[in-house]
Amino acid sequence: MNKQHITLNINREEYDVVVTDNELLSNVIHDTLGLTGTKYGCGTGECGACTVLVNGDPVLACITLVTAVAGAEIITIEGVAPAPGKLDPIQDAFLEQAAVQCGFCTPGMILVAKDLLVRNPHPTEEEIRETIRGNICRCTGYTSIIRAIQQAADPTICCQSKP
Amino acid sequence: MSEVKYFRPRSYSEFTDLLGQLPTGFKTVAGTTDFIPAARRGAPYPTALLDISKLNEFQEIKEEGGRILIGAAVTMADLLESDLIIEKCSVLASAAKSLGSPLTRNRATIGGNIANASPSADTAPVLLTLDADVHLISNDGLTRQVPLTSFFKGYKITERGNDEIITGFSFTTPQSGIWSRFAKVGQRSGAAISVANMSVIIDREDNICHDIAVAFGAVAPVPLRAVSVEKAAKGKPFDNQFITDCCEAVQADISPISDIRGSADYRRHVAANILARALTDAFA
Ligand SMILES: Cc1cc2nc3c(=O)[nH]c(=O)nc-3n(C[C@H](O)[C@H](O)[C@H](O)COP(=O)(O)OP(=O)(O)OC[C@H]3O[C@@H](n4cnc5c(N)ncnc54)[C@H](O)[C@@H]3O)c2cc1C
């Protein structure tokens, strides 16, 4: 099989990787680089568990060729927190609103929410629902996820999960 | 998987330098949102891939000499955010907005949607009603333009030769004052493939239908113009008879099948209903 050498910029770090031709971005991130927050779900672009940000836009890593994003700025869930031991406000809100159960969809949910709040710091509920349309969650029923994104946008929204 | 050569030109000159050198059996890809799922389902892998998604010239949307030009690598997200498209051709923006989820739309291109030639491709009916031309270039460097109305030949068969690449689309800028709509019926409201879709562009005054273009998708082996509907409607005054005639005519234009997404019978009903609703709203 043909192998090639490419440089990937992931979470503001450069990775020199040897990839086989037509390898998927999700494989390289998860298996080769061990950044296991990016999940491989359906493999056909339906579920959103493999979401990563490419030059700021959320894309599906399981239907993207790794060679197609060489040189681009990629952010995975591991790159969202501002510093070690600190969480992004969206991550905090997900915890507080108990918007995580099995956790498989969570990295994708947080990344699409991140992109939304960068573009639109005060989204309506409808805009939040539209944003997470391509991300499937089988545990929460979405309500707590929407609430978490609302809380991240507006921290004055009270936390319902805390006693 | 055997060896695959991968080419990713970044400019038009890099692209033209490659022409003539692309190995036989190469395939053009852009967003790979159709290509990878198809490969996973077992579609044979090509010997070489030409990735046009980073080619600047193919990412342009512009207006020149009364025509709108859209590059093959323009994504659905680009169409949605383009002021030119929103202002002058909103019907294409609404088709782009209906395609997949925001995640898919960030990568899915208009060239891929048309080249893939699914009967349910959401931009196809819109481009058909706009009388768009498909711009092609072959591996030999020969260019030609084909009207989209003669591009789809049969189920997933198109006029495009194996060594031809779609470079973009062009169409006359729609006149201001026309009424247009893209309608789509899927199995659920979000991120669903069309059971039926439709684009309508109407030039009307008072209650007379001066000119009309109607196209449907997912109700025949190929996306198509509803010529009988157009004939029944052109020059006619809007009234109940007008709706009845158009909805009868559409049955002659379409030839739906039953599949996992809906029965042929259901598709016939839905096609007539979305048409009737659009015509009613157009003259409301
Ligand atoms: C989750 C999901 C939801 C979807 N929902 C919809 C939907 O609602 N409506 C809809 O219409 N589609 C939908 N699609 C299908 C797909 O996203 C679109 O058809 C998209 O526009 C294809 O563009 P692409 O750039 O990804 O094409 P690619 O996958 O890169 O290519 C598709 C095909 O076209 C060929 N091709 C691509 N570009 C060119 C070119 N310039 N010249 C010649 N050949 C070319 C390729 O060889 C390949 O055969 C969906 C897909 C997914 C994964």
Strand content of chain A: 15-25%
The overall number of domains of chain A is 2
Count of DSSP H/I helices of chain B: 11
State the major sheet of chain A. 5 strands, mixed
Q: What is the CATH third-level topology name of the largest domain in chain A?
A: Ubiquitin-like (UB roll)
The largest pleated sheet of chain B is described as: 5 strands, antiparallel
Total strand count of chain B, please? 14
Name the biggest interface.
A-B, 29 and 28 residues
Give the C-level CATH assignment of the largest domain in chain A.
Alpha Beta
Order of helices and strands of chain A: EEHEEEHHHH
User: Major sheet of chain A: order of its strands?
Assistant: 2-1-5-3-4
pLDDT < 50 stretches of chain A: none
Summarize the helix and strand pattern of chain B as letters.
Answer: EHEHEEEHHHHHHEEEEEEEEEHHH
Q: What structural class results from the helix and strand content of chain A?
A: alpha+beta
Q: Enumerate how many helices of chain A there are, as a single number.
A: 5
Whole-number mean pLDDT of chain B? 95
- Oligomeric composition of the shown chains: heterodimer
